[in-house]
Amino acid sequence: MGKKKPDDPHKLVRKWMKSGKVKKKCCRSKSRCGKCPVLALKKAKTKIAKAA
To answer: Do 45 and 10 contact (CB within 8 A), yes or no?
Structure first.
């Protein structure tokens, strides 16, 4: 059996936070950093939309 892909983007971002790929809080800099949770949520939404 293969791994089940999460259908909730928030769960995917939480998983990335636990692994250290995403920060827990946004620093609110003008251009968002690569570890920003806001950008991670956008990325997770597009990733799930492509998979569906």
So the answer is: no
Q: Residue 28 and residue 42: Cα distance in Å, rounded?
A: 15
14, exposed or middle or buried, with CB in 10 Å at 0-12, 13-18, 19+?
middle
Tokens 């293969």 found at: 2
CA distance 1 to 35: 32
- Helical spans, DSSP H, in 1-52: 9-19, 37-51
Give tens-digit pLDDT for 20-33.
999 999 888 888 88
